[in-house]
Amino acid sequence: MTNLGGSRLTRHKLLLDVQNLCTHFRTEEGILRAVDRVSFQVHRGETLGIVGESGCGKSVTAKSIMQIVPKPKGSIVGGKILYHREDEIIDIATLHYQSQQMRELRGNEISMIFQEPMTSLNPVYTIGDQIMEAIQLHQKLDKKAAREKTIEVLGKVGIPSPQDRVDRYPHEFSGGMRQRAMIAMALSCNPRLLIADEPTTALDVTVEAQIINLMQDLQTEMGMSIIMITHDLGVIAGIADRVLVMYAGWVVETGTTEEIFYHPQHPYTRALLQSIPKIGSNARLESIRGSVPDLNNLAQGWCYFAPRCSAAMDICVEKEPPIFSREDGHTVKCWLCQEEEASA
Amino acid sequence: MMNFIIRRLLYAVPMLVLVSFLSFVIINLPPGDYLTTMRQQLQSQAGLTPEEAREITERMAARYGLDRPFMVQYWEWVKGIVTRGDFGYSFQHNRPVSEVIWQRLAWTLIIATTCHVISVGIGVVVGIFSATHKYSFLDNFFTVLAFLGVSVPNFFVALVIMYYLAFHVKTHVGGLFSPQYVLAPWSWAKFVDFLKHFWVPIFVVGLAGTAQNMRVMRGNLLDVLNSQYVETARAKGLPERTVIYKHAVRNAIQPIIMYMGMAMPFLIQGEVIASIVLNLPTIGPMFHHALINQDMYLAGSFLMMIAVVLILGNLLADILLAWMDPRVRYE
User: I need a labelling partner for A157 at 20 to 30 A (CA). Which of A14, A329, A339, B98 fits?
Assistant: First the structure.
């Protein structure tokens, strides 16, 4: 268990406690460990950012929490996803994806928005129908009340003249408007946790800023927690309280946003930060050499980042690094930390 | 929506005119006509002299307007169809075309429609099952069945079934009725006899369509099940049944509806050989004979009927599609 000695974080109650989550995919080439012993916590009202390159397991982690990992290939094979209610704790990992309890959580207490606003709404139903569907399902409202609630929530996410837009089809909306509609759908049942899987990746930069601001405003208003998944460190810096850095299915570093940005410990995190372009700098942009390893049948017992790491040592290819805890809940999965501890 | 239907109906009118003209042109394309055949028959079989034969055929030509210019003939033909429902005269049958074709057309439409409804029904249901149980034993079984259904020619299937029925079950095969019922008035016994014959052409003609619909539905549904909006629907907490039937199938079924517009002529064309083998009273065999004998008004009328069915089928499919998919309406 990671120790959260942080100043403001302990004041919040725990909402989600993920422990050693393992989600595997059975593929033709063997077993793919998409999520490998991932642990993290989300507190009430907090925003957790998950960063990493494509294919590092960010989305699968999110889908595991929702129990919407593509079946039958993917499945949660180990670990716990403890969801804290006021009076009870539910382990989502043990629930069947079709069970009544899971369906009551999904889309109601935990909801999700996706990367592709252009394709995440069903083209043959109106925006209103699709939002009302969730409201009617979870809140047991009649059609008229659900429609009023839909118009209200559409207005809340900044869609102009929502009473007209409610009857429009997705293809009549722009990308930004569709993402607002998706947010409206996700927030329609007042979730306690919102998972946003790269919600702004497909949008223009100006629209991106609007959507991020909207999410922050709504978070303040509704008091929900957010898990923000992105590969854009700029977005994370602006919105997250704590950050989880993932690489090849592992959590390689966690910490408060300040710690991660100002005192990164893991060579991968440092490399990620160096690959952000800076305005006014003429220095050549650093890239991380090599690419993410193929997760199919990846041999265990070493550090997957070692081949790309500028600080790699002999031990890195011989033994898997354990997780080293630093102050303020900062954890690092790297042998370099042992060196430092030994020399200190 | 109403706007779309009206617009679509108006498009159909010039199409029908064009189609009728093309049918007439195509029928007139081969050298010679029915009278050439008739003149030869009068000389060789009735023993008339060439002069007598020519006199008779020239009288017929004058009577039916065959000596007039092409455009005039076409105009007279279309005028007859529109004003009197008169499709011209079948020289081969010595009766007006309209008297000859309706019964055949009715049987054809009954067989084709039944085949179509069954092939869509079974194809869609099996396709949904296959897609939601991908690579299961039954999915693989249906896949093999579908490939067989698509690749085995239907007249061959007809022959196999007829052989089996005639030599193993020892019942009457071919046609739609046993001989004793052909001219009998409708009765329960005749209806039962009819059903005993009717399933053979339905099976034979419908097999390929069913197989195709199965494959199309399976493939489309698998595509749609991978789409983001299906995941959105799941993320809402909807039961899997609602996700599949309300969100996925509704989008996956569109190509099947589009195909419905083309299915009728395809079925009619597909049943020609099967109908000859099975001795069915449909338009297929009659169309075939009319073409061989250059019975121009009969052949032309059939050609046009098929084209009209195609246009109407497409019209219906378009309207259905627009009703199902809002994106189509605004194009």
Answer: A14
